[in-house]
């Protein structure tokens, strides 16, 4: 029986990986106890013979956006070696660039208002304060994760922020969005699905004085028990854009009672398995359905 690769990354200390390693290890042990021939594999380890694996599960390739061209080459390699990837290779390529949000919006689903700026194009942030009718903006790369090069621009410091962005935009494309005070007030929702079926959800909140909800930046996690209507809202994004995905995380917030998508996480989301005792079983059942 060929092996299954639980794909992770080479930790060089760039990210706070305490929680992800814990989740990875617990999941690995759980799946091994279920009888699966599965082991941890670093995605860009040149010594790996991918033909030895029948299946690869993208779990925590946390540095993929720092090595995006290598990552795309690796996806091509898996295709060549006929290794099945979960989530599917085509979905992963699509999800790696936040321009996917435009497709989701075009399909009639709600997203946070977003403008995309191409690399090396000049940008004047003042225009976007006016466009979004706000005095705060969130600016981040189109290919990014973990709040890398993400900053909050305020109307009071627009010139300094404009200079910073115009330097960064020489290297990569960016997305500009209005900062939503609802995220500070009510937090950011995450709905987790396994093979298209709802599993569990939570709200992430930033620490006082910050806007980043990631645990690495001091954010906190609060489990939720949403009603059917909220789950159905999140399910719409899954049904249209996460077909045949082992896992998916729908991240967003509510503005005037309406859910706005921030990101559809299909590559390396932390799954918060520890917040729901049944989540490991749900993950395993979804995996068995897709193998």
Biggest sheet: strands side by side, in what order? 11-10-9-12-13
List segments where confidence is low: pLDDT < 50 over at least 5 consecutive residues: none
User: What is the name of the CATH topology of the largest domain?
Assistant: D-amino Acid Aminotransferase, Chain A, domain 1
Structural shape? globular
Features:
single chain; alpha+beta; D-amino Acid Aminotransferase, Chain A, domain 1; 5-stranded antiparallel sheet; 4-stranded parallel sheet; 9 helices
Protein architecture, described:
- The protein is α+β, with helices and mostly antiparallel strands.
- The protein folds into 3 domains: 3-95, 3-Layer(aba) Sandwich (Rossmann fold); 100-110 and 182-290, D-amino Acid Aminotransferase, Chain A, domain 1 (2-Layer Sandwich); 115-179, Dna Ligase, domain 1 (2-Layer Sandwich).
- The chain is 33% helix and 26% strand.
- The protein is built from 9 helices and 13 strands.
- The chain has helices spanning 18-33, 68-81, 89-95, 100-106, 125-132, 158-168, 181-186, 228-241, 279-290, and strands spanning 3-8, 38-42, 53-58, 84-86, 115-117, 136-141, 151-154, 174-178, 188-194, 197-205, 220-224, 247-255, 258-265.
- The protein has a 5-stranded antiparallel beta sheet.
- Helix 2 links the parallel strand 3 (53-58) and strand 4 (84-86).
